[in-house]
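If your schedule permits, I should be very grateful for your opinion on a structural question. What I wish to show you is a protein chain and, alongside it, a tokenised description of its three-dimensional fold. Would you kindly read the sequence against the tokens and tell me how you understand this chain to fold? Here, with my thanks, is the record as I have it:

===
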Amino acid sequence: MNREQLDVYRQAEISTDHECTDLQGINDRLAEGFKVFLREGTVERDLQNTIQIVNEGNAQRFSFCTDDKFINTIIEEGGINFAIKLAIQYGVKPETAYTMASYNAAMAHKIDDLGALSTGYKADLVFINNPKAVDVNKVMKDGKFIQENDFETKTLNFQSNTMNHHFTKADLKLELSNDECNVIGICPNHIETKHLIKKVPIENGEFKADLKNDVLKMVDVERHHNSGTYGLALVSGFKLNEGAVATTVAHDSHNLLAFGTSDDAIYRAIEEVTKVGGGISVVDDEKTLATMPLKIAGLMSDKSWQKASEDLSAITNAYKKISNDIDFNPFITLSFLSLPVIPTIKLTNRGLYDFEQQKKFINIAR
């Protein structure tokens, strides 16, 4: 966004931003009075490109966030503690990095009793062995040290059916008037997309998956109100060799998203996540390889964090079996391909949306 657009947000009393991916964008936000959260998530790997803007003169305007981070990524590398570690590695003073992660974050959220060791502040503390390594030893919450059994939680009862659609395999039919098409190009480890223009194969007037050039069919199915609406698009960058993926984690409407190398595979993945009440499923050309049920609204697991991590590992390993090597998380990447408020083109259940033109739906074939 330009300065004029940012000013509209500030006048609406929006005071923070976590979508910055480059230095110019950060400078514009600082000039407009924003406090900026530097992001490092499972997919949104932005810290390396942004942390160098922090100095002792402006550090009070910065904090950290993860935005979206899977449990297995948290187990492997950590959450905010990982952002602190990276910041220190990139040259930020340890005391500055810790202040950004605590006091600055509390101030940005207008929370006046967290983030500092002082009278009137809550005793939410992290005890570190090695500040530069961010080696967490103990955690205190409300003056009580956290024990292992504090993580033994019980799932709330959730009975609502959130898989309300009547999508059929015939709905996947994609007729094209010509072979030059608008294609969603994913950006590894980022949530924005590229607007690609590619020539694609057509067979009997319909799109045929182009595995050689990595162009596949994608669908967004409305799943909350059984409205019957859906959108089709072409996507490039997932490097599938066979099969399909379906998910009900799809920002921000959280419809049912799927992509794959054939209509049969795509529809089988859709059937699988529908059957389990929502989730993430990976199939090959013949069978289901792995499914992570997300029984709470198709968004959250009802299992322990350990079991949820195992499910995530299972679908990740399944994806590796049907794809070439990738260096990004395909599931979170897919979940953001339906978020039209982020550049550049995204898929909704009403069709392909062009962010640059704002409120403009475009055809697949040019």
Summary: The mean pLDDT is 95. The two ends are 27 Å apart (CA to CA). The first strand starts at residue 16 and ends at 17. The CA atoms of residues 94 and 131 lie 7 Å apart.
